[in-house]
Amino acid sequence: MNHTRPPASGPAAARGPRTGPPAPRTGPLAHTLRGLATVLVGPDPSPGETAATLVSAAAGTALAVGACLAAGLPAAATAVTGVVALDFFGGAAATSTAAAKRRYHAPGRTLRHHLGFVALHVQPFALALFVPGFDWWTATALYLLALGSAAAVGLAPLPLRPPVAFCATATGSAAALLLLPVPDPLSWLAPVMLVKLLLGHMLPGAARGAAERGAHGTEEGRPGGEA
């Protein structure tokens, strides 16, 4: 025999059934950490995106500073190199995340915005100012290489941007390593800078590509397209 309970009445019934556990409360520390992650990575980053950014930044900075110390560079040169490495290695991971794509490739963002972001990366000139053996013309060549390559990626049709970005990163890194007189402790600079700015920042990511395909249709959805 089935025994059924009478329907509930009173304040408990007025509130309705509980649909799940109460939302956890976040304290000031959690709120601060979330805000810091948003600044470093992008809006509402996942824990994995934040962790990858922090690991990349910490490991890259340790490698760069260790190379400076092994080469006996002055303290100012080592400190500036460490700050640049923190930004470039951390940014190489951060700019590839979906959180960063939501920030830098949101609706209304144009090529002018993207190139403006690249143009702000004047770190090679700071290194030329402090690091012995890193010449101003080398810094200028690297800066113009990054800016010109970013323009080439941004002007390419959307489906061609990934191969153009990879081509520019690979050939630009090789050219910088083979042709530019860069001190050994800064040999990482050109590849990591181009990875951050071209493969990370300039590529819109899966979300933008999906939006473009949804707006214009896909080959599978067109008459005569692939089955």
Protein topology:
Layout: H1 11-15, H2 28-40, H3 47-71, H4 75-94, H5 98-104, H6 111-119, H7 123-130, H8 136-155, H9 161-179, H10 189-201, H11 205-216
Transmembrane segments: 136-156
Keywords: Membrane, Transmembrane, Transmembrane helix
Biased composition (Low complexity): 1-18
Structure summary:
The chain crosses the membrane at residues 136-156. Keywords: Membrane, Transmembrane, Transmembrane helix. By secondary structure, the chain is mainly alpha-helical.
How far is the first residue's CA from the last residue's CA?
A: 56 Å
State the low-pLDDT regions, or none.
209-227
Radius of gyration from CA coordinates:
24 Å
User: What structural class do the secondary elements suggest?
Assistant: mainly alpha
The main pleated sheet reads as:
none
Number of helices: 11
Strand content: under 5%
Element pattern in H and E = HHHHHHHHHHH
Number of E-type strands? 0
Shape: globular
Mean pLDDT: 83
As a percent range, the share of helical residues equals 55-70%
Question: What can you see in these coordinates?
Answer:
- This protein has helices at residues 11-15, 28-40, 47-71, 75-94, 98-104, 111-119, 123-130, 136-155, 161-179, 189-201, 205-216.
- The chain is an all-alpha fold and 227 residues long.
- The protein has one domain (44-205).
- α4 (75-94) packs antiparallel against α7 and α8 (136-155) runs parallel beside α10 (189-201).
- The radius of gyration is 24 Å and the shape is globular.
- 32% of the residues are buried.
- Mean pLDDT is 83; it is low at 209-227.
- Residues 1-18 have a biased composition (Low complexity).
- Keywords: Membrane, Transmembrane, Transmembrane helix.
